[in-house]
Design brief:
With 176 residues, the protein is mainly alpha-helical. The chain has one domain: Up-down Bundle (Four Helix Bundle (Hemerythrin (Met), subunit A)), CATH 1.20.120. Helices cover 59% and strands 8% of the residues. The protein contains 7 helices and 3 strands, in the order αααβααββαα. A 3-stranded mixed sheet has the order 1-2-3. Helix 1 (3-26) runs antiparallel to helix 4.
Amino acid sequence: MSFGSQLFLDAARCSAWANQSLLESCSVLSNEELDRDLRISHLNIIGTLSHIYHGERVWLDCLVTTPDSGHWRLPVGPDANLSLDRLRREWPDIWDGFSRWLEHKSDAALENELLLHLPGAVQARFPRWKVLRHVLHHSTLHRGQVIGMIRILGHQPPAVSPMDYYLSNPKATPPR
């Protein structure tokens, strides 16, 4: 496995671990707390967690697009909020999807460009590594917002930084 692929695989696993930690932390919150409009991000914790989930699902779909399936179009329109239980059940499949997709990728495969159709009739070509970097950053940004909302509600959020991941997973495979 190339260094780039290993680096991205580690980042995807770290992101999955952080999402899982956040879901576990949110399991102690009441439905009222999960749904409370805190005027941050996607209004509330469940809306923001659902947004992260849908973003990861959509961009994984983009990454696995093959040349024979043509160009890729970003879906438009709001996605439904999912329950915490449903997120806990379904999200691991997305995390596994990123790992499976990355496990045997070469640097050349990560540099392979995709034609994306984005809202506003925008068409752009991006290498797959930029799409992956975007989705990982997107998830990190919104996890930080959920952490802020958990604090506003008076609860202790989980520690979800990459260093926390490395400390809690000492056997995590480091990039070579």
